[in-house]
């Protein structure tokens, strides 16, 4: 059953290192790695956001849009729907994260953090961050890149399908339909081979 509840905004600031707005919310439901949440503006819209982190009941969300950040910064609490999406199973020995931009990295950072907490070896290759681990393979490869770069990823990689709108997060509206998949319930991480064909 999908939960929708109020979450108190504990703090927010502009993270200069990543050029992003960071919000910390008191939220009682722990998202699993790979899941996301929607911020609900009643009778207006829902905005899907990647989970930046979750620790000790604190949900960290990164907001790229200055307009959305301004809408949130004066609120004491917001409605959060989720966790949404299909969780990733971290029963592996190694994880490689691939990102194009710093914001792409933040979209996969929770999976990497949870992997580290479980004692899994994690590696990161992030073009804009200037980080290259030198590792090109792992038991689990997760990626967040623009749609135009998907065909450059390993076929077994799971890519965050971030370029579609996920309005409801429940697979009901169908707006996020992409190459036969509903990323809001079958993703948002989908195996590259399933959306670009086998090479």
Strand and helix map with partners:
Layout lengths: L3 E12 L4 E7 L9 E6 L3 E11 L2 E6 L2 H8 L3 E8 L9 E6 L2 H16 L3 E6 L4 E2 L7 E5 L13 E3 L22 H4 L2 E3 H5 L3
Parallel strand pairs: 7-8, 7-10, 10-11
Antiparallel strand pairs: 1-2, 1-6, 2-5, 3-4, 3-6, 4-5, 8-9, 11-12
Nutshell version of this structure?
The protein is 17% helix and 38% strand. The chain is of the alpha+beta class. Strands 1-2-5-4-3-6 form a 6-stranded antiparallel beta barrel. A 6-stranded mixed sheet has the order 9-8-7-10-11-12.
Description:
- There is one protein chain.
- With 199 residues, the protein is of the alpha+beta class.
- It has 2 domains: 81 residues, Translation factors (Elongation Factor Tu (Ef-tu), domain 3, Beta Barrel); 103 residues, no CATH class.
- Helix content is 17%, strand content 38%.
- The strands form 2 sheets. It has a 6-stranded antiparallel beta barrel with strand order 1-2-5-4-3-6. It has a 6-stranded mixed β-sheet with strand order 9-8-7-10-11-12.
């Amino acid at each position: 059953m999908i939960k929708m509840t109020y979450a108190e905004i504990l703090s927010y600031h502009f993270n200069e290192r990543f050029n992003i707005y960071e919000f910390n919310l008191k939220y009682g439901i722990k998202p699993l790695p790979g899941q996301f949440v929607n911020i609900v503006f009643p009778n207006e819209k829902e905005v899907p956001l990647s989970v930046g982190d979750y620790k000790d009941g604190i949900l960290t969300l990164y907001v790229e849009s200055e307009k959305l950040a301004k809408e949130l910064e004066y609120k004491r609490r917001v409605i959060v729907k989720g966790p949404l999406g299909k969780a990733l199973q971290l029963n592996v020995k190694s994880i490689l994260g691939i990102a194009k931009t710093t914001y792409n990295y933040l979209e996969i950072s929770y999976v990497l953090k949870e992997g580290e907490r479980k004692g899994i070896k994690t590696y990161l290759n992030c073009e804009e961050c200037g980080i290259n681990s030198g590792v090109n393979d792992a038991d689990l490869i997760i990626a967040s890149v623009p749609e135009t770069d998907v065909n450059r990823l390993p076929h077994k990689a799971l890519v965050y399908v971030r370029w579609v709108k996920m309005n409801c997060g429940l697979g009901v509206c169908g707006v996020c339909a992409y190459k036969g998949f509903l990323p809001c319930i079958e993703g948002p991480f989908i195996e590259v081979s399933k959306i670009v064909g086998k090479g």
